[in-house]
Amino acid sequence: SSTSTSPLLQTLETTLLTQTTLSFSPPPLKTTTPAYQKRLQRLRLHDEERSYKSLTTNLKTAASLKDDNVTAKSMMYATSVGLNMVVAPITFGTFMYFFAGSIFSRFFDDPEELEDARGSAVDVRRVIAGVVSGVFMLFVEMILFVIRSDTLDSAVRKKGRRRENRANAFGYTEKSMARTYVRDD
Hints:
By secondary structure, the chain is an all-alpha fold. Helix content is 70%, strand content 0%. The chain has helices spanning 7-19, 34-55, 62-107, 111-117, 124-161, 174-177.
């Protein structure tokens, strides 16, 4: 307000500014056509689906369960190979200890010495035969392990060279990125 206006106008202006509120009329409602209602329904469904997906992002999917199965199979394979590398040399060494003992006593011992030594003495030849045969079996198991691992690695490399299994720069394969969109129009 300026100084040249009358005091009545100043009072009116002050009263209007302090005691009144602004009100806006609502925008005119759009006509509810069936196409408009159908679009609103589809948008609501998309919103509902988006919120559902955000709720269920931490749940296991079929792909993650498949990864878990692969991990479990890999662990089972590693466990079986480890047990085989421990049990096979011990078993074969024990077998050769008893088998070599009978061979040594039958072909290389005198019958008279056999009757004297049968009491408490440990035959060193049997122990050496068992240990050497156990170490030999350990080497055989290691060679078999290397062959199996190489075969498995070559199969994984061959599978990775297939076009559908190649990953893009973000680590996604074509299989995992495949989406099917259905339009309800």
